[in-house]
């Protein structure tokens, strides 16, 4: 036995649209994958081992940690078999648990049974506007953070605006 034959890894509930980028907004970060049966997988950040797992008879492994505060980290997932063979997978993980600031409406007017709104919000966040009748309207805020939208004026004149950032924080 001179090398590790298989080692894969993925982030559970990855919030990135790319499989090569790892984003999370969870308190408990879970990674899983496949590897050589009986080998040990370690999660290492800045030289500190945060979690370990043994690859099960199914060839699958899973480990979790709640020790990563918000920020960007280079993590190492290292698999080592009983013969001392190692394989290291280095990844960058971005952790963000902070909700975006509430959107601000800077202008509104009613024209022809439409309410026209303009405002500011976190760039690239999604705004969800829900009226008192349960109708929902969404828009993605442009890079400059300025948004505008026209929706039918609700019969009760009430609506809520919720902001969701790119990683899913509300």
Structure description:
Keywords: Membrane, Transmembrane, Transmembrane helix. There is one protein chain. The strands form four sheets. The chain has a five-stranded mixed beta sheet, with no helix packed on it. The protein has a three-stranded antiparallel beta sheet with strand order 1-3-6, with no helix packed on it. Strands 9-10-13 form a three-stranded antiparallel beta sheet, with no helix packed on it. It has 170 residues and is mainly beta. The chain has two domains: 10-95, Immunoglobulin-like; 104-164, Immunoglobulins (Immunoglobulin-like, Sandwich), CATH 2.60.40.10. The protein has strands at 10-11, 22-24, 29-34, 40-45, 48-54, 60-65, 71-80, 86-95, 104-111, 114-120, 126-131, 136-140, 146-152, 159-164. The radius of gyration is 23 Å and the shape is elongated.
């Amino acid at each position: 036995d001179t090398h590790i034959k298989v080692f894969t890894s993925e982030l559970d509930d990855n919030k990135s649209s790319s499989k090569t980028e790892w984003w999370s907004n969870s308190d408990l970060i879970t990674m899983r994958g496949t590897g050589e049966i009986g080998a040990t997988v370690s999660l290492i950040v800045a030289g500190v081992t945060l979690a370990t797992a043994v690859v099960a008879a199914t060839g699958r492994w899973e480990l979790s940690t709640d020790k990563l505060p918000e920020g960007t980290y280079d993590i190492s997932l290292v698999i080592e078999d009983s013969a001392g063979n190692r394989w290291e997978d280095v990844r960058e993980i971005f952790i963000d648990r902070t909700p975006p600031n509430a959107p601000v409406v800077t202008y509104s007017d009613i024209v022809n049974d439409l309410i026209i709104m303009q405002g500011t919000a976190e760039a690239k966040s999604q705004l969800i506007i829900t009226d008192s009748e349960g109708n929902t309207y969404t828009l993605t805020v442009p890079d400059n953070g300025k948004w505008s939208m026209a929706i039918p004026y609700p019969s009760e004149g009430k609506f809520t605006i919720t902001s969701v950032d790119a990683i899913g924080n509300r």
